[in-house]
Amino acid sequence: MTLNRRKVLKMGLGAGVALTSIPVAQSVIWSGKDFTRPGYEPALPEAPEGRAAWQNWSGLHKATPKEIFVPADAAALAEKIGAWSGRVRPVGSGHSFTPLVPSQDMIVDISRLSGLISYDSAAKTATFGAGTRLRQTAQLAAKVGLAFPNMPDIDVQTLAGSFSTGTHGTGRRLAAIHDGVQSFHMITATGAMLDVSRDSHPELFAAGKVSLGSLGVITDYTLRMVDNYALTRTITLARTDDIIANMLDLSKAHRNFEFYALPGSDYSAVIIHDSYDGKLEGRPPSKDEDFLATLKDLRDTLGWWPWLRRKAFGAYASAFVPDDGPMEEATDEYWKLLTTSRPTKFNETEYHIPEANAQAAITEINAIMSSRSDAYYPIECRFTGQDDAWLSPFNDGVRCSIAVHTPADESYRVLADVIEPVMQRHGGRPHWGKMHSLGEDELMALYPAFADFKALRKEMDPDGKFLNPHLAKLFGEDLA
After folding, report:
1. DSSP 209-254
2. Same domain? 164 vs 243
């Protein structure tokens, strides 16, 4: 149920606004506004002769490296890295919004290092190529009766990319997905292959689970799995103030709890998953893109008049949501419910906030975004349990992750200029794959083991083969 301008105005007018009261001049000016940011270019960069072209999923980061190497196996990759005299950056699906990948030397695409290599049903472990996408991993595991304990809401990332950036789902009793790593094979800067586990290389294991691709290139992982399982999901609309007031209790009451605050409205979309052992009814067709298009319609049509915009959304919500139940109910295998397709591209910042500060932080951020006439993208709020990786944002306890998005073709300055300072003031640690401006000094203060990670990285890669400008900033290194 997307809305055109006529429908939007009817909804707002139905809330008690007379047509003659609408300032026509303001409406006309707003309707002609172009939100496209200057310099936006969705196409790949034009590569000079002899070079390749690369960009990340949102098109924010681009590179024209000397080579994009796609190894057929680990041996070919080890030989290539050992012989390469320049810098090397690995890439998974390119779904990070920080410039972890861009390199003008060599980018290594590990997509062919994928698939289920082996599994042990009794031990509940499985070994996968590091280039296996999350959805493919879940599907392959399900065929042999195994499962991830949890999954993030986007499933196109590779195992290496998701683990290396601390990708997470939601659930205060569930750790980020890198916590399931039991061992991995890593190719070092010299081309040597290391078999890394908690017993064989305890420090490298603790550092390598969330490594930003800075220690070496990982070729496969052995994972701790669980028996395959099903979930029930409900999606409801509720007043944002009520959800924020009760968010800690709701996170404790359900296996997976998250909500999306909707700027320019008084509502949030609440998504809850709980364990389920009955008949599976399947997942209905997703309404996410339709819902997002409606929010954009409201922004494009009524962003200039916040009061009417709120009234129109309230009318839309009343028409869209059943009086006697949720917007959506579903039962299915976990991996079919926890993940969501995201065809519409965006840029994103996400910080992980200490639980004690979470309600104040989301209240402030929602107020900021709701006060902006150009904002419409939902604000995501989730919880993640503790783990012990050196650079895991969750290694000091349960944290609440707050993610703010802007459309890929629109300005993202609000994320850096307005939202990031709020996140930092509330004690947040940045998601390694989401937009942030922090460098060595700030990260040293946030992570007790950051100095240990830096020292180990220097030992593993003294010449900085796996660095690029972004990583050099994080670790205080000179690329000259």
Report:
1. TT-TT-S-EEEEEEEE-EE--EEEEEEEEEEHHHHHHHHHHHHHHS
2. no
